[in-house]
Specification:
Chain lengths: 188, 276
C-alpha cells in the first residue's frame, strides 16, 4: 500500500516501472479536482463521474509518455478536458438537457424565499449562465477561473495559440456577464 | 466600455497575464477611465461568483469506490497488455515470413508455388515406377525355350530395366514358341547350330542359374537376365560380365536377326530337341 505523502513523481516513477498499485494514491488525490472541472463542463453528475474515471484510465495507459518534470495534475487535466470535449461533441443533447434542468431547478426553488438565500440565487444564476455559454467559452472559463490554469497551460491543453486564449477568455467573460445580467432582469 | 482599451487587455490584466508594456498601458488607462474601472470590477465579481458557485456533489459511489473501480480496470488492462507488444511482434513475424519465402525460392528466382508442386509430382511418379515390383515367374512352363528369336518390335518394346525385361520374357506363350515360322510373334532358328558357334565355357555361365540374353544383329549381348531355377535373382556381376560380349550374329532366313537365348537350358533343351 502507498500512503498519501509520497510525491506524484515517486508514485508515477513506480507506475512506469510496472507497479500499477502506485497509481491508486494518484486517483484518490485528483479525483475531486477533476470532478469539479468536468462537472462545470458537462453539467451532469453521472457524466462527470464517468469522465473522471475514463481520464484516469487513459492517463494510466499513457503514463509511459508522461514527463516527470511536468505537473501530473496539469497533464491529467488536459487528458480529462480533451476527453470531455469529445464527449460533449458526441452528446450535444446532454448540454441542452442540463440547461433545462438548471433552469427548472432555479424556477422551482425561486418560489420559496426562505430557502433561497442571496448566495444561492447567485450560484444558480451563474450556473445557468455558464450552461448557456458556448462550449469553447465555457471550457476556457472553467480552466482559467476555476482551475487557475495559466494562459500557457490552457494554450497547451486546448492546442490553441496563447493570443487566442486571451481573446477567447475576454469574449467569454463578456458573454457570461451579458447572460448573467439577462437572468437577473428575468428574475425581477 | 466606451473607450479604446481592448477588452482582451482588461481580461488579461484581471488574470495577471500581461507583458510589462501592456500592464503599464492598462494601469495608466485605468487611472484615467472610470468606465474601465467599473468594467474591471464587474468582471472580478463575475469570477468570484463563478468560483463560489457550488457544484452538485458527487455520488457516494464515486467518492468511496472510484479508485477501486479504476484499479480494477487497470489491472484487467495490465493482464491483457500482451497486445502492447503487437507493434514489435507483427513486424518480426512478417520479416520471418519473408525470410522463409526467400530461403525457399528456387534458384531460377521463381517463387514457391505451382512449379514446386509439379516438380514433386513428377518425382513422385518417378518413384512409383522405380519401386514397381516385377511380376515373378510362377514356374518353368512359362519359360521360353532356347533358340527362341524375338522380333525387332518386341525387342524395341522391351523396357530398359533388366528385371522388367526378364519378366516379359517369361510371359511369352508356349504355343507361340512351339509354333512354326510365321505363326504368332515368334520364329524359330536352329538353336543347336547357333549355340555351337558360342563358347559357353568362355562365357562361364553357372549351371544353377537361369541366364538369358538378348543378342543383337551384330552378335553383341545387349541385355542379360539372371536368376535361379525357381525365383529370378539378379546377379549383377554376371550381367555386367556378359553384357557387351561379342558373339556370332544369328541369322533367320539368311538375314541377321536379333535373338533371345536361354543359356541355362541348353543341354536339356538340346536333348529334348534331339528326342523330338
Amino acid at each position: 500500500m502507498y500512503n498519501s505523502i509520497e510525491s506524484d513523481e515517486v508514485l508515477i516513477a513506480r507506475v512506469k516501472k510496472g507497479d500499477c498499485e502506485a497509481f491508486n494514491p494518484l486517483v484518490e488525490r485528483y479525483k475531486m479536482p477533476l470532478y469539479k472541472v468536468l462537472y462545470r463542463m458537462v453539467h451532469n453528475r453521472d457524466d462527470a463521474e464517468d469522465l473522471v474515471e475514463e481520464a484516469f484510465i487513459k492517463a494510466y495507459r499513457a503514463i509511459s509518455r508522461f514527463d516527470l518534470k511536468r505537473s501530473f495534475y496539469a497533464w491529467i487535466c488536459r487528458i480529462a478536458v480533451n476527453n470531455a470535449i469529445n464527449y460533449i461533441k458526441k452528446e450535444r443533447r446532454a448540454q441542452v438537457q442540463s440547461i433545462g434542468m438548471v433552469e427548472y431547478k432555479l424556477t422551482a426553488e425561486k418560489g420559496n424565499p426562505v430557502r433561497m438565500t442571496r448566495q444561492k440565487i447567485l450560484t444558480e444564476r451563474i450556473n445557468t449562465a455558464i450552461a448557456k455559454l458556448p462550449e469553447e467559452y465555457r471550457i476556457i472559463l472553467v480552466l482559467r477561473v476555476d482551475e487557475e490554469c495559466s494562459y500557457e497551460d490552457i494554450s497547451s491543453m486546448l492546442k490553441i495559440p496563447k493570443g487566442t486564449v486571451m481573446s477567447r477568455l475576454a469574449r467569454a467573460r463578456q458573454k457570461l456577464k451579458k447572460l448573467f445580467n439577462e437572468l437577473e432582469v428575468q428574475e425581477k | 466600455m466606451k473607450c479604446d482599451l481592448p477588452i482582451e487587455l482588461l481580461s488579461g490584466y484581471l488574470d495577471d497575464e500581461l507583458s510589462k508594456e501592456d500592464l503599464a498601458r492598462v494601469e495608466k488607462h485605468l487611472g484615467q477611465c472610470a468606465a474601465c474601472r467599473l468594467e474591471l470590477d464587474e468582471l472580478r465579481k463575475l469570477d468570484q461568483h463563478l468560483r463560489a458557485a457550488a457544484i452538485e456533489e458527487p455520488s457516494r459511489e464515486f467518492v468511496f469506490n472510484l479508485s477501486r473501480q479504476v484499479m480494477k480496470k487497470i489491472r484487467k488492462k495490465t493482464r491483457v497488455s500482451i497486445f502492447r507488444f503487437a507493434p514489435i511482434f507483427v513486424p518480426v513475424a512478417v520479416a520471418a515470413l519473408v525470410l522463409i519465402i526467400l530461403v525457399n525460392l528456387p534458384q531460377a528466382g521463381k517463387p514457391v508455388g505451382l512449379d514446386h508442386q509439379v516438380f514433386y509430382s513428377k518425382d513422385k511418379v518417378r518413384k512409383e515406377i522405380t519401386l514397381e515390383i516385377p511380376e515373378v515367374s510362377s514356374g518353368r512352363d512359362a519359360e521360353p525355350k532356347k533358340g527362341y528369336v524375338m522380333k525387332d518390335e518386341e525387342i524395341a518394346a522391351e523396357p530398359s530395366a533388366p528385371i522388367v525385361a526378364k519378366s516379359k520374357a517369361y510371359r511369352v506363350p508356349e504355343e507361340e514358341i512351339s509354333g512354326g515360322a510365321g505363326e504368332g510373334l515368334c520364329e524359330r532358328v536352329d538353336a543347336d547350330e547357333y549355340l555351337k558357334t558360342v563358347s559357353l565355357e568362355q562365357l562361364a555361365i553357372p549351371d544353377d542359374r537361369i541366364v538369358r540374353a538378348i543378342i543383337d544383329t551384330d552378335g553383341v549381348v545387349v541385355k542379360v537376365a539372371t536368376g535361379n531355377t525357381m525365383v529370378p535373382e539378379r546377379d549383377t556381376m554376371l550381367e555386367n560380365r556378359l553384357q557387351g560380349q561379342q558373339l556370332k550374329p544369328a541369322t533367320v532366313s539368311g538375314k541377321k536377326a536379333q535373338i533371345y537365348v536361354d543359356f541355362t537350358q541348353t543341354k536339356e533343351t538340346t536333348d529334348c530337341t534331339t528326342e523330338q
